[in-house]
Protein: Signal recognition particle receptor FtsY
Amino acid sequence: MFSFFKKKPPAPVVPTPEAAAAPASAPPVPSAEATEAKRSWLRNPFANKASAAPAVEPAPEASTLPVAASPLTSAPEPTAKPERQGWMDKLKAGLRKTGSSIATVFTGTKIDEALYEELEEALLLADTGVKATQWLLDDLKRRVKDSKTTDPAAVKALLADALTELLTPLEKPLVIGQHTPTVIMVAGVNGAGKTTSIGKLTKHLALEGASVLLAAADTFRAAAREQLGVWADRNLVEIVSQEGGDPAAVSFDAVTAGKARGKDVVLVDTAGRLPTQLHLMEELKKIKRVVTKADGTAPHEVLLVIDGNTGQNALAQVRAFDDALQLTGLIVTKLDGTAKGGVLAAIAQERPVPVYFIGVGEKLEDLETFNAREFAQALLS
Structure:
């Protein structure tokens, strides 16, 4: 739980003789349900971004939670997130390249085997993968039979339901606050948008009121340290870096500094690499081991950033990095520049690592939490 969400105890009140003589009236007491709902939200502020924090019955003299300063800097107050409908509009536009070929299948006049064959081809071209495509077709045929649907346009809605069911296991919130600091290791191949995604994730965390420390452990790529430094300046957060330093040593120093400074989150930017570069993959394992030496419970999250443009290759990356690091979550970027957005279905079917965030643009607000229903509807809109 974030320290700046804790409520300060009220100062003791000494009753005057007049007050003592007056009849006492009991202040309103929050219900058990409201109190538990508030605690649940504070434990996991990412769990339901579409709704605000649960309402809590007001205390006698205060209706808002005080904000305490962090050890070094004042914690920023959480600001309102962009409207979810605005995000849906961006998501629909971003997935248009993938969804247009699938949507055209349902413009016919009847439901027959030809329709299913066209749909199969469209799903495979969207890099949904053979296993996920077969699962979707079988499930769709069952839904059509159960609903006795005769309109091809209605079949598209049933496909959205089937896709939502397939993708739902990937829908999991990123939990911050169970550990202080929460250490997040971020990996990914060069060009996937790893460092940019770290900058966007830092912005998300800051909007939730978390204090963040960045670790520039990507000493393999030229100018990576400088690029992360730019994101640190934009988000007004601290950064630990060493010119030409050992990535594992930088990571160790950052986790140690995060603990000493009372940071909520330490984000470790690791070197981009291909899973075929075995010596570099071993270095990633070393970073993870060293982070554990700095904090016996860390890393608490191991994220992989994948480029949606790479289609089935993204699934191969998930397999390789998961085998090496035991991934806890994914960030999928650049879905607006590809016709291969169906790869999320392939991941759900073959290696269901949770998708924490998806991106459809370069702006800070173009990275949002993944929602299976929203994704399916946007893809088939």
Q: What stands out?
A: The longest strand covers residues 301-307. The beta strands are 182-187, 212-217, 238-240, 265-270, 301-307, 329-333, 355-359, 367-369. Confidence is low (pLDDT under 50) at residues 1-30, 34-80.
